[in-house]
Design a protein that fits this description.
The complex is a heterodimer. Chain A is built from 3 helices and 9 strands. By secondary structure, chain A is α+β, with helices and mostly antiparallel strands. A 3-stranded antiparallel β-sheet of chain A has the order 1-9-8, with no helix packed on it. A 3-stranded antiparallel β-sheet of chain A has the order 2-3-4, with no helix packed on it. In chain B, helix 7 packs antiparallel against helix 8. The chains are: A alpha+beta, B mainly alpha.
Chain lengths: 170, 224
């Protein structure tokens, strides 16, 4: 019994105690600042509302057309109107598809038939990235994924677009 | 594990003597509250430093959200107070710590004064301490403006008018602080922010270093 007692020296005991108390104080001090710093990571997105893009569903044809609209964006303490755009068309199954114009290579903006050399394709001027009409990237061009699509809804004959989500592989 | 890492480093760059210099020193009996309870008065200097550390940490984290601009300053403070988890606590730490640091500093000064610890050979350290006191007041004054609410604005207005009372250079001093001869506004806020987070803390670190090196060199003053 008394042998075991001597295994912790006075110096060791003080070291452990001081480290423990010091660690406790440091943790108590840092917990709030750290929680505050990581808050953006833990905040979950409430999911954007659908916005009226000002296009009647009946006007959507099999030819992709560009629509521009703006949404209210709340960025911390700063609220602003930001512009959005999409390429909308009706596909072979008579479904409405709205593509995000952001190139999946490095984020430039693509346009339908943006180059005279490639009719019937989306074209990105930055690095000659191309996509077919169904949004799938042309093999051998820089982009490695198809164009993202907007969630969409029809209300009173008007097209409403929501969040952007990855293209379900064609 | 920790011991192994320590040994690995120590083996290469021999840090033990440095560590010894910093941490290993005798605490005389007359400053040890375990021997004489009244020795707790010796804690105030260390407590001041401890609160300063809290101020530095909480301040660093607050600048993640704060914007020193008249359009956004109040909005950003309101946002962190209401929308960011634990930010209210962090700003609370900074807000109350600012007062506590002055209280601790005064108690420390009173102890040194009434024990006569400032006498030869420690006059220089007293002077450095007085400079630290002024830097702290400066930090309090400049920090008060940053939330950019009514209280902050008018307190600064008054503070600047006090600065203007200085003979001969008063007006120039006010303009230098406010960034404009008449307006307390956009330029004042950025100036105060720069002074609060860069210039004064820089001065504070230098002065604290001198303060601590002098204590270590001269040792703590003897018993009464």
């Amino acid at each position: 019994m008394s042998d075991e007692k001597r295994q912790v020296s006075r110096r060791q005991f003080l070291n452990y105690t001081l480290t423990g108390v010091g660690g406790f104080m440091a943790a108590g001090l840092l917990i709030s600042p750290v929680r505050m710093a990581i808050d953006p990571v833990l905040k979950h997105d409430e999911g954007g509302d659908f916005a009226n893009v000002g296009l009647e569903v009946s006007e959507i044809t099999s030819d992709p057309q560009r629509v521009d609209w703006s949404v209210d964006q709340v960025d911390g303490w700063y609220e602003s109107e930001v512009s959005r755009s999409a390429w909308v068309y009706r596909n072979d199954n008579d479904e409405i598809v709205a593509f995000s114009p952001v190139c999946k290579h490095l984020g430039c903006v693509v346009s339908w038939e943006g180059s005279d050399d490639y009719p019937d394709q989306y074209y990105c001027p930055c690095h000659d990235g191309r996509y077919y009409k169904d949004g799938v990237n042309v093999p051998g061009t820089p982009p490695l994924q198809p164009l993202d699509v907007y969630e969409q809804e029809e209300r009173d004959g008007m097209l409403f677009l929501g969040n952007i989500r990855p293209h379900e592989e064609a | 594990m920790l011991q192994k890492i320590y040994d690995w480093i120590d083996d290469r760059i021999d840090i033990t003597p440095i560590w010894r210099d910093i941490a290993d020193h005798e605490v005389p009996e007359h400053v040890n509250p375990a021997h004489h309870f009244s020795a707790f008065v010796y804690c105030f200097g260390g407590l001041t430093f401890f609160v300063v550390v809290i101020q530095i940490l909480s301040g660093m984290f607050l600048t993640m959200y704060y914007v020193p601009d008249i359009e956004n300053a109040w909005q950003s403070v309101y946002y962190l107070q209401t929308e960011v988890a634990h930010a209210q606590i962090v700003r609370g730490m900074h807000h109350w710590g600012a007062s506590v640091v002055i209280v601790m500093l005064l108690l420390h000064t009173l102890r040194v004064f009434f024990q006569g610890a400032y006498k030869k050979p420690r006059e220089l350290n007293w002077m450095v301490g007085v400079l630290i006191f002024f830097v702290m007041l400066g930090l309090g004054f400049t920090g008060y403006l940053l939330p950019w609410d009514n209280k902050a604005y008018f307190a600064t207005q008054v503070g600047l008018e006090i600065a203007e009372q200085v003979p001969f250079i008063g007006e120039a001093l006010k303009t230098l602080l406010a960034g404009d001869a008449t307006i307390v506004g956009a330029q004042t806020l950025t100036r105060f922010f720069a002074i609060h987070v860069f210039f004064l803390p820089g001065a504070l670190f230098a002065l604290l270093a001198i303060h601590f090196i002098l204590i270590r060199r001269q040792g703590i003053s003897g018993p009464l």
